[in-house]
Specification:
alpha/beta; two-stranded parallel sheet; five-stranded mixed barrel; single chain
């Protein structure tokens, strides 16, 4: 009914292929609950898919009618209270998966791209790993933790939605060889003048 052109089995097969090709890959998704016609069994199938794939990030929304969409013709038949219950259950499942993922990272090392000051307190900066995990670091540990720096950190603690890291070193970017610009072969192209009527 949402015009998705793949089956659950096809989706899971693709996710498994991605994980086989990129070990450590994490996935996030968007989920709408209470779409017209969604049964309790449909919603349970959604929860089981979230578990099977193991999404570490999830944005959830209650269905609401939107102008000019084909779903308007279907009728909004899932009661608002049931949509709210399903959304709460979805978030509870998602939080458990996210927290388990973050807890599993304690004791590992990661490269963190520094984004700026953290809202957690003075002297702390925040950045993100390659997999988009949020990491907080004490800036006093390294004076070079400026915006755009890449720090190698040890993950020392998992919070509800983020990690805390202990600074180990700054990663220096590899030198980039820039080839001299070559002139294009052949005649030089000239733009045509714009003529108005």
């Amino acid at each position: 009914r949402m015009i998705r052109r793949y089956t659950r089995a096809e989706y899971v097969t693709r996710m498994n292929a991605l994980r086989a090709a990129r070990p450590g890959l994490t996935l996030s998704t968007d989920v709408i609950v209470g779409f017209p016609g969604e049964t309790a069994e449909d919603f349970e199938a959604t929860l089981s898919l979230v578990d099977e794939v193991g999404f570490v990030g999830l944005f959830g929304f209650k269905y609401s009618p939107r102008p000019y969409t084909p779903a308007l013709k279907l009728g909004d038949d899932v009661p608002e209270a049931e949509k709210q219950r399903r959304l709460a259950a979805l978030f509870e499942r998602s939080e458990a998966l996210t927290q388990a993922h973050l807890a599993a990272l304690v004791g590992t090392r990661a490269e963190v791209l520094i984004e700026g000051p953290s809202r957690t307190g003075a002297g702390t900066v925040v950045g993100r790993t390659r997999r988009n995990e949020i990491v907080h670091l004490a800036q006093a540990a390294a004076p070079g933790l400026d915006v755009g720096a890449v720090a190698v950190v040890e993950v020392v603690r998992a919070n509800k939605h983020s990690l805390e890291g202990r600074f180990e070193s700054l990663k220096r970017p590899a030198p980039v060889a820039v080839a001299p610009r070559a002139e294009a072969a052949g005649p030089r192209r000239v733009g045509l003048p714009v003529v108005s009527a």
